[in-house]
């Protein structure tokens, strides 16, 4: 993972500051690791 440029962002769910490996787009929500995993598990339920 070293060498990857990280960008600061604020999680759209919990409001916590986090770092992501991409430049955040202000038009799209960004989620911290915890909220992202919660959202993924919810999407997989049918």
List keywords for this structure.
46 residues, alpha+beta, globular
Description:
This protein is α+β, with helices and mostly antiparallel strands and 46 residues long. The chain has one domain. Helix content is 26%, strand content 17%. It has a two-stranded antiparallel sheet. Strand 1 (7-10) and strand 2 form a beta hairpin.
The end-to-end span amounts to 33 Å
* Integer average pLDDT: 89
Give the helix/strand class.
alpha+beta
What is the number of strand segments?
2
Beta-strand fraction estimate: 15-25%
Number of domains: 1
Order of helices and strands: EEH
What global shape is seen?
globular
**Helical percentage:** 25-40%
User: Strands across the major sheet, in which order?
Assistant: 1-2
Care to give the gist of this entry?
By secondary structure, this protein is α+β, with helices and mostly antiparallel strands. It is built from 1 helix and 2 strands, in the order ββα.
SSE topology:
Elements: E1 7-10, E2 17-20, H1 33-44
Antiparallel strand pairs: 1-2
């Amino acid at each position: 993972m070293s060498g990857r440029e990280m960008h600061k962002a604020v999680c759209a769910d919990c409001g916590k500051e986090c770092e992501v490996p991409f430049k955040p787009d202000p038009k799209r929500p960004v989620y911290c690791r915890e909220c992202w995993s919660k959202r993924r598990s919810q999407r997989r339920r049918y």
